[in-house]
Amino acid sequence: MSNVSLSFDGNRALVALDRPDKHNGLTIPMLRDLVRVAREVGERDDIRAVILSGNGPSFSSGLDIAKATGDPLTIVRNFVPIPWRGTNTFQEACWAWRRLPQPVIAAVHGHCYGGGLQLALAADFRFATPDADFSVMEAKHGLIPDMTGPVTLSRLIGIDKALLLTMTADSVDAAYAERIGLITEVTADPQAAADKLAERIAARSPHAVAAAKRLFDRTWQQGTLRTLGIERATQLPLLVRQALGRR
Fold first, then answer.
1. What angle do CA 149, 242, 167 make, to 5 degrees?
2. Residues 197-222 pLDDT 10s
3. Cβ-based burial of 202 (10 A; exposed 0-12, middle 13-18, buried ≥19)
4. Confidence (pTM)
5. Is residue 208 a contact partner of residue 189, using CB atoms and an 8 Å limit?
6. Which of 42, 70, 158, 237 has its CA 20 to 30 A from that of 5?
């Protein structure tokens, strides 16, 4: 049974993380499902926007460390990048949404931590409830954000703020996240805000919308795949230390 649901409402794809009892903690099968669902959506010419959300009390509490690290061989297999894609499973679960021609809008509530935050950052827009909170929490586990976070963080906020969030692993509220540019807007109803934006964008040429997304992705900052490679190389020795029981 998949913990990532996909449904369609007219010209919108509705994608939801569906592991509510665990605050949508991400497992490796969920990461694979995110890649699969993104690919499926990308093949639909009739879809004009994607809304990404989480069922239950939170958008996502991040990677379920206990589940994800239970089988070291599985970690290794999914950590190795696919040569023609340039990303591994952890990275592609997020970056697949940036690859889509359609705009992706994240509707965030509750906790948005770690890998869940990196998934939200891979969306083109992020609406969040006033009580949502955000954390680049990998440092709590002796790790770094390695699901495309360094790429998206560097595009959205200054390096000092990115380092502050990454080094401290502090949780910040939605008002602060909006102020520094981590999210697009604070709103009482992120789903409704996402619906309205999707409707506005759908009124424009899908070719122009796709071209705009492609243009900004290619020109905002260069060297994405190089950055992702550095991300993996930096994380690998930390994962080895974790496996050996060191911090």
1. 40
2. 999 999 999 998 998 898 888 776 65
3. middle
4. 0.91
5. no
6. 70
